[in-house]
Amino acid sequence: MKKEALFYTKEKDKVVCTLCPIRCSLKDGQGGVCGVRINHDGILYTYTYGTLVSYAVDPVEKKPLFHYLPSHKTFTIATPGCNLHCKGCQNWEISQVKAKDVIENELFKDVNVPPEYVVEMAVASGSKSISFSYTEPVIFYEYMYETARISKERGLYTIMVTALYIEEEPLTRLLDVIDAFSIDLKFFNDETYRRYSGAKLDPILRNIRKVFGAGKWIELTTLMVPEHLSKDQIESIAKWISEELAPWVPWHISRFFPYYKAKDLPVTPLEDMLYAYEKGKEAGLEYIYLGNIDTDRYEHTYCPSCGEILIRRRIFTVIENRIKGGKCPRCLYEIKGFFEG
Ligand code: SF4
Hints:
Blueprint lengths: L2 E2 L3 E4 L2 E4 L7 E3 L9 E4 L2 E4 L7 E6 L13 E6 L13 H4 L3 H6 L1 H4 L5 H10 L4 E4 L8 H13 L3 E6 L5 H7 L5 E5 L5 H8 L3 H13 L3 E8 L6 H15 L5 E5 L14 H13 L5 E4 L9 E2 L6 E6 L2 E5 L20
Parallel strand pairs: 8-9, 9-10, 10-11, 11-12, 12-13, 13-14
Antiparallel strand pairs: 1-6, 2-3, 3-4, 5-6, 7-8, 15-16, 16-17
The site of iron/sulfur cluster has 12 residues, from loops.
């Protein structure tokens, strides 16, 4: 559905979208880099308000959030579009769309699910939270905001899974309605970010600092893209999390599998995953997780003080949770996160 966008300015015969750092300057009829915001007669519209193309009930571990009410069910939604263009996107069929697709494609054009209905579905599914994910929720900002606002009125928690490539003002407003963030920190080098994803590093670091500083729960994920993410960058990411945020911020290191325009790249070698894990340890990070690999070791939460296994997981499923009152039952070390019981 077409709805006037919240963030834009008018300049002579153009409008400038101020939602994300790309700041598209659009003539009448033109669409932005994300494909879903279009200038019509001097008004910027979002074309994906209500265009619900994907929804599912997932364990929160799939987001991934490992320290945020472990094992609860989260109702997850997406609309088409993305402001990034990652070469190895796993959801490219719904993320890499053009405005023309959204307006004309049978899969999208007649879809209109109001936020109230999404929240009803979430409540009926028995979920404790609602997540905005699969594509990039920044580009369905207005739909996410309203859905999150109503969700909170209904007692649901709200989660955003995002690359956080957004301008400061919209992010500030979003902090009123989003409780937890799962954030991709893909690279630590502007050139690589630009070449692989079409984004810049600095706004992303600024935004992560802001969300963390606002006291929101955050967990970071780095996809180990071979031939793009260098060892230097891995080391820098680990140090940055530990020194600029805190050693207790969970870091998910995810194995890459070739998709979309990156089919020529190999699967991340296991030794590279272990290298990143060791660099995280050296940087003092307390909670490091390896994702997309099947092991009986790197998905668990360990007590940083005594080494006890506190939460045992296997492929995003919690097998056992021994945390009591937010503490290790053996040495009483405080485990950061949101835990029940
Ligand atoms: S949200 Fe879309 S239209 Fe707006 S600046 Fe970013 S890419 Fe351009």
